[in-house]
Design goal:
mainly alpha; 99 residues; 0% strand; 38% helix; single chain
Amino acid sequence: MRYGDFVSDISAIQEYRIPIFFLIMSNRLMTELGVEKETLEWNSLRFTTKPDIRETIHALVDWQAGLPHTKDDPAYYDFLKEKIPNDRRCEDAKVPLWY
């Protein structure tokens, strides 16, 4: 997850700090996973972090393997199934102050 020189390029710094995630998912897979379109639309406009992406990917891997998924940290969200709070702040997401 690197876009250019994330140390000195302002665009790359922004992407490093606040990553973007594009998802293409079939309706069939959404149904199998129990993903609601409303949740995806809601989270499309919310503050997400790299740990949220990690949490989401772990949930997908557990689903694919037929394992129950348990969250490691309640500060991070599986954004396919959980609505991210509208008022989420950097402190809530454990983003360091120097970011």
